[in-house]
Design brief:
The complex is a heterodimer of chains A (112) and B (114). Chain A has 112 residues and is an all-beta fold. Chain A contains no helices and 11 strands. The termini of chain B are far apart. Classes of the chains: A mainly beta (112), B mainly beta (114). At the A-B interface, strand 5 and strand 10 of A face strand 5, strand 9 and strand 10 of B.
């Protein structure tokens, strides 16, 4: 099976702009979770989607949003970018019995 | 109190030694526990999962779980330079219905000296 894919792999944006990241889960996985990883804070949970519905949400401001499509592909959007949003954004998909998460390669976002 | 804590690092061991990585968690009802390995510049990959008290062995890796002490550990025997990476402890806690939460520790960086 193909793994989790994320696009783009690298992004450079400026403060105030908005960005959309995309994630395609492993075939058959309906749960997609998003994480932000920074050296100081580690891996922090953003949100989880299952069957096009947000099932869980972390403690991030409303500038961070996401959605999931009927084919389980997911997007996350960050509006009004801040310097502190510079991070590695990881997407992970889970099989129906949950538990194990399979991570994509990540999108590295740099906000200038 | 942090939900998932890993002992401070970095940890450096000589090749062939046993590396011991520890993790504590705060939610007593947590059910599933995972160890992920992350190489520099790469994404995390699952190396071990454990769900019940006791030891679980997989090759050179042994995961240990003690729910009474809210403690999970990973032992790496015969450490190799290729084991040098950051190890993330993750704890899953299920709530009512289909809602569950997977929380990661900040990770500990292991360096295996040749």
């Amino acid at each position: 099976k193909a793994g989790v894919t994320q696009t783009p792999r690298y992004l450079i944006k400026t403060r105030g702009q908005q960005v959309t990241l995309s994630c395609s889960p492993i075939s058959g996985h309906r749960s997609v979770s998003w994480y932000q990883q920074t050296p100081g804070q580690g891996l922090q949970f953003l949100f989880e989607y299952f069957s096009e519905t947000q099932r869980n949400k972390g403690n991030f401001p409303g500038r961070f949003s996401g959605r999931q499509f009927s084919n389980s592909r997911s997007e996350m959007n960050v509006s009004t970018l801040e310097l502190g949003d510079s991070a590695l954004y990881l997407c992970a998909s889970s099989p129906p019995d949950r538990g194990t998460q399979y991570f994509g390669p990540g999108t590295r976002l740099l906000v200038l | 109190q942090k939900e998932v804590e890993q002992n401070s690092g970095p940890l450096s061991v000589p090749e062939g030694a046993i590396a011991s990585l520890n993790c504590t968690y705060s939610d007593r009802v947590s059910q599933s526990f995972f160890w992920y390995r992350q190489y520099s510049g790469k994404s995390p990959e699952l190396i071990m999962s454990i769900y019940s008290n006791g030891d679980k062995e997989d090759g050179r890796f042994t995961a240990q779980l003690n729910k009474a002490s809210q403690y999970v550990s990973l032992l790496i025997r015969d450490s190799q330079p290729s084991d040098s990476a950051t190890y993330l402890c993750a704890v899953e806690t299920s709530y009512t219905g289909a809602n569950s939460k997977l929380t990661f520790g900040k990770g500990i960086t292991l360096s295996v000296r040749p």
